[in-house]
Amino acid sequence: MVQVLPVTFEHHRDALGIGQSAPRPSWKTTGDEKDWTQSSYELKITIHGPHAKEEKSETFKVKSSESVLVPWPCSPLKSRESATVQVRVTGAKGSDPSEWSVPSTVEIGLLGKDDWKSQVIAAPRTLSASNSLQPALFRKDFHLSKKVQSARLYITAYGIYEAFINGTKVGDHVLAPGWTSYKYHLNYQTFDVTDLVKKGDNVIGAEVGEGWFSGRLGFNGGWRCIYGDKLAVLAQLEITYDDSQAETIGSDKTWKTTHSAIQAAELYDGESYDERSEILGWSTPSFKDDSWSAVSELNFPTPKLQAPEGPPVRKVETVKPKSIFKTPAGKTVVDFGQNLVGWLRVHVSGPSGHTITFTHTEVLEHGEIATRPLRDCKAKDTLTLAGKSITWEPKFTFHGFRYVQIDNWPLGDPTLSDLEAIVIHTDMQRTGWFECSEPMVNQLHQNICWGMKGNFVSIPTDCPQRDERLGWTGDIQIFSPTANFLYDTFGMLSGWMKDLAVEQIKELNGVVGVVVPDILPRQYTKPQAAWSDAAIITPWDLYTAFGDRQILKDQLESMKEWLEKGVARQENGLWDPDGTQLGDWLDPDAPPDDAGKAKTDPHLVANAYLVHVTDLMSKICKILGLGDGAEHYGSEAARLKKLFQEEYVTPNGRLAPDTMTSISLAISFNLYSTPSQLLSAASRLSKIVRFSTFKIGTGFVGTPLILPSLTQTSQSQLAYRMLLGTKCPSWLYPITMGATTMWERWDSMLPDGSINPGSMTSFNHYALGSVGAWLHGTVGGISPKEPGWKVIRFEPIPGGTVKWAKCRHESPYGEVKCEWKLEGGRLQVVVQVPLNCTGEVKLPETDEVQKVGSGVHEFVVEGHDAGDWPPKPLANPFTDPEKDEFEGK
Ligand code: BGC
């Protein structure tokens, strides 16, 4: 019997205080039914007015097979209104409807400016020793005269905050309200605080640190107070009493403020906490705040106050230390065995006034913690004790680390049980898993996942450890197909895309910043192919993975502005050849101090991307029903493609220059004009790959494309050979060096264990992990055939020494799975199609595509032959060919 799982709304994990007034419901159906498709659904919706006064129920029956993001059938909800929604579905004609799903609730936040009755209140500016703003406390006593039925706290800050009611922290968010382009968008959070308030005396409080709002951001010393120079809070506690009467306690001049016990807290440099300054019970009713200062009221925020589209940053896991050891210099260092992002939690006791220092690094060099890659970032927390035992962790900073040097631990050294690492990231739902018979490939996949976790911290960032942590557009443009498979990224990335658009349109005259939020001085805001192209490609990738057309609609203006105004063109429409381009960033042959010096002409990269995004734009217009746009961009793409060919492709299909990256771009973006050109490109690519002895020759741009290009040209064994190689540069080389995350450079650590001398050397960068999409789609064998996974493509291509693989994805419709194993020449493939979906199965050695409905299906191919293994390198006759590491495997 088909069962319906609880309804979800829009892309929210938790639909409390959302910003969409007509929230589109989605549901998944489960059961063993074969070939089941939905023919209709019924939604039972009960609307509750604000303060639970009125209630209205209605049922809507719709003939449709849609079960993802269906239209909201009632009138739009207003601020504070909520709805309880149940669904039941019917399969083919004549079948009985399912049971109703258990009720789900959606509640609207504060949609308009008028909903806010509170004031933004600021603390006096107090500078720490390092010139940062010392965190501040805010508090307000209030009395509730009657029994409370429900209570909501709407809150945000200039800075990052934690809220408290009657001594208890509100909610489980960290680094709230998260980072947005604060000039235009400021997220507020909604918390259900019914259980925290009570009849009688109460206190609401907030602790605020500078975070992204006023803290130092950026390289070369960075910039302070980018968005403002005062720590402030905006809070509105709305109470509904048992008798349905309402009362609001908002931030205003009656609140008081003082310094926090945190002496300084900076995202890069770390946090210093002095327990002796802790004000016990400051957020409880019995506390007297006579000595606290008055707050000042600021103007109401000019940015749009909005409910977040994605989930908050949370503490998601804890990692226990693996070992504590002494370095050659006699320092005490703890090793967590995993490069991660977050902070330490310590349990310690010691004399009052005793200060312990914790310095965080990703790697060791010569046995000592390696701080050089952190550049201008201290990554140092200090804890000053008050003579008691304490469990402490920072709250207004974060670090990227595997190792922590601990200086001045009281009375000897810490033990393993004194320390743990707290892992934080945007708390997206995990949706993708992959495993195969090669342990090193599994480690690579794990490193890709850790690289993603550490760099999805409110915005998609480039690195979590040094003086950067910015939303580089090129990095996410390259990585998002992998990311969208592994986690439900939609809400987080769609929110970020809105920042990209608003900055581009309001400030940059169509140019898309290389970082979003754009905090860099204007000289960095140059149009950059592959980076700025995130304006078109990233919404497209979100559409492909989640099937939500709305993202294309929402971003359309930004896409057009980019193509019409932003791209710096020469007269014929191709990129201006004199502008600078980041190009195939971090080509392995680029010198350590010049990451853009790639083998592949950066203008070829730019022009290949231009044809691709113009073509995508035509597709997007078509999907949105914009016939004229589709035609215009379609013919423009064809015209640019012709110009590209004239400029770079010889009639016989050679490319100038011909590199792994250029050929992969031309194959992936369909830039050849004849099948014979494509054939000669395939053979050229094969030669280049073999001549490189299967080592990687691509930077950021070529890396996601090289293996798919080999696969697309029926050369999968070459792709496997590249994947499985362990010599530098390769995907597995870092693993031979003990990597537990993806590195920024192919050789962030050199084979002798020293760190790449380049000043830009992170050990936690997701871009080179973009190979994940090929692991999922080709080794794992699953990808969406149509946007949103309603039709699934199963096309596993076994190869190399991989003997089995298992891949699964929690799609918007339910779990998609593909598992295969190879024994002798017998290939067995088992696929799982969720209810209400269909699958198209293409097995190796046949062109036939088999269509299947929901359920589990098994296929066998006898006499499977993946091709010669290991493929041979092309040796230079004057040098010794490298010993083949796959001999005998
Ligand atoms: C970042 C990159 C980024 C690049 C572009 C670096 O500092 O870490 O990942 O894309 O700069 O300039």
UniProtKB/TrEMBL annotation:
All residue ranges annotated as the Alpha-L-rhamnosidase C-terminal domain in the record: 781-856
Domain Alpha-L-rhamnosidase six-hairpin glycosidase residues, every copy: 430-779
Keyword entries, A-Z: Hydrolase
Catalyzed chemical reaction(s): Hydrolysis of terminal non-reducing alpha-L-rhamnose residues in alpha-L-rhamnosides
EC number: 3.2.1.40
Enzyme's top EC category: hydrolase
Positions of the Alpha-L-rhamnosidase concanavalin-like domain: 326-425
Stretches assigned to the Bacterial alpha-L-rhamnosidase N-terminal domain: 146-317
Molecular-function GO terms, alphabetical: alpha-L-rhamnosidase activity
Region named Disordered: 573-598, 864-889
Name of one Pfam family that matches: Ig_Rha78A_N
Cited InterPro entries: 6-hairpin_glycosidase_sf, 6hp_glycosidase-like_sf, Alpha_rhamnosid, Bac_rhamnosid6H, Bac_rhamnosid_C, Bac_rhamnosid_N, Galactose-bd-like_sf, Ig-like_fold
Name this protein carries in UniProt: alpha-L-rhamnosidase
Native source organism of the sequence: Cadophora malorum
